[in-house]
Amino acid sequence: MESKRQVTVDPSPLQGEAYSALPRDAAVLNGHRQHVMDSERFHDASERILGAINKVIDGKADAAKLALTVLLAQGHLLLEDVPGVGKTLLAKTLARTVDCTVSRIQFTPDLLPSDVTGVSIYNQSSRQFEFRPGAVFANIVIGDEINRASAKTQSALLECMEEHQVTVDGHSYQLGQPFMVVATQNPIEMEGTYPLPEAQRDRFMARISMGYPDQDAEIEMLETHQAASPLIKVTPVVTANDVAAMIATVQQVFVSTAIKEYTVAIGRATRDSARLRLGASPRSLLQLLRAAKATAALDGRDFVLPDDVVDVAEAVLAHRIILDRKAASSGDTPQTVLRGILASLPVAQDAPGAWRRDRHSA
What we know:
Elements: E1 6-10, E2 28-29, E3 32-33, H1 39-56, H2 61-72, E4 77-80, H3 87-96, E5 98-99, E6 102-106, H4 113-117, E7 118-123, E8 128-133, E9 140-144, H5 151-154, H6 156-163, E10 165-168, E11 171-174, E12 180-185, H7 198-201, E13 206-208, H8 215-224, E14 238-239, H9 240-251, H10 257-272, E15 276-278, H11 282-298, H12 306-317, E16 322-323, H13 325-329, H14 334-344, H15 354-357
Parallel strand pairs: 4-12, 4-13, 5-14, 6-9, 9-12
Antiparallel strand pairs: 1-6, 2-3, 7-8, 10-11, 15-16
Helix pairs in contact: 1-2, 1-3, 2-11, 9-11, 10-11, 11-12, 12-14
């Protein structure tokens, strides 16, 4: 019987070159250190990416911005919702806007870990084992319906997502930069799915629930998507070097001591909450701050405000916390608990410009 495993690797339409492992430093690509972009170039590049996505995904501008935020914050994205609302379409569109290597993995119960990471094959002519890279060796990896694969195959992504490397037969192989996993999944209560364990979910910087489009967006979709998918017309609007420079720019965004204290306070409040059985991990707070820096950069600032942290807190933390049984039975959700925590935490009311003045004393 023919296997259902599907692993495809699509070369960049502009690059036209095979993928090769690149240095782990996010500001280094193809052997060249990236310089920080000025605000005008950064704004122009981000607007081109968001404009291309919004032409394909109707009525989901917030989801598009969050997806770009995760890319620039060097994170991974989990798209979770019912079938048919555009999860895979969003992932494919984001990937096509960047001139880099892209791979797509269709997760099924018979998918093997070696299909993801690669395998060593014995070459009879050279009498040596040669490593054949798996689908994870690409700049952007799309994992479609990740919760349909077994836990063993899901766990093959753990090292890749956290350490940006693959270890096979005792040898480690570095992944390139930029590197991002965009995974989609259906709700765990649907048939034929294997829920992601907490350790795997914690590797994803943010989770997006697409939701149904509003009436106007759905009518627009019916008018524009009938003859052919608009995804066909999407072409790269930035290069991989541009993305690396944008990432380097985000890394330079300033974070004051007060913002760091506010971020830690959010995490500790989730751990102390009586309505939560599991609070936010230290890794999640680090990723929360990275996402806040990317949000600030996309808004045209080189410093982080408390609003930047609040804007991404739900997307970054909600999938990492676990409700207490009593809270779950009373109708609470991780989102409502987080909103309550954010509403109750005080934010330091500093004088205008104080978020930036700390730069010279930090």
